[in-house]
Amino acid sequence: MSDSGTDNKPRAPAIEGWHTMEAKPCLIGTQCDECGSYFFPRQSHYCKNPQCESTDFSDVELSRTGHIWSYTNACYKPPAPFVAAEPFQPYAIAAVQLEKEQMVVLGQVVEGVDVEDLKVGMAVELVLEPLHETEDDIKVTWKWKPIQLEHTQHVE
Ligand SMILES: [Zn+2]
Q1: Predicted model pTM
Q2: Residues 129, 143: contact at Cβ < 8 Å?
Q3: Contact of 32 with 52, CB cutoff 8 Å
Q4: Which of 45, 58, 97, 129 is most buried (CB neighbours < 10 A)?
Q5: Distance of CA 49 from the midpoint of ligand 1 (Å)
């Protein structure tokens, strides 16, 4: 009476269209055809650049690496459309400046990494982690993972 088939559910994005599903995933943003500004989440109606009146945007895959610009501890459930695991547990959030685009993208930090482990300027990469399971699949979302987690103990 084993139920062993359930571990093989397909993975599906918790929010459709925000990232690719490859082993090395990247976020999907848009770039203004006129001024070249990058946007994430995607912008497709008007350009936020006040100097630009473009309404034409192209989908782009954004850098999957960057450096931590700022970080914080989230003790509250994030507002929609962000999704959090249930039951809700506090987690670290990092604002990461993308390598190429130099734009800052917010994301959860992977499980097992605490705020105390993070430092401004730390290199991170984008990974997908499961959020929750449904009948048909396992919902995943993007998270930031330190590329080389230094174990900086507080030796004072
Ligand atoms: Zn523009």
Answers
A1: 0.81
A2: yes
A3: yes
A4: 97
A5: 6
- Cα–Cα distance for residue pair 96/23, rounded to 1 Å: 20
Strand order from edge to edge, sheet including 38-39: 38-39, 28-32, 57-61
Is 142's pLDDT higher than 80?
yes
Cα–Cα distance, 73 to 50 (Å, whole number): 32
What distance in Å separates the CA atoms of residue 134 and residue 155, rounded to the nearest whole number? 45
pLDDT tens sequence across 37-82: 999 998 888 999 999 999 999 999 999 999 999 999 877 776 777 7
Task: Measure 62 CA to ligand 1 centroid, in angstroms.
Answer: 17
Convert the pLDDT of each residue in 85-119 to its tens digit: 777 777 899 999 999 999 999 999 998 898 999 99
Q: Are 65 and 123 in contact (CB under 8 A)?
A: yes
CA 50 – ligand 1 centroid, Å = 8
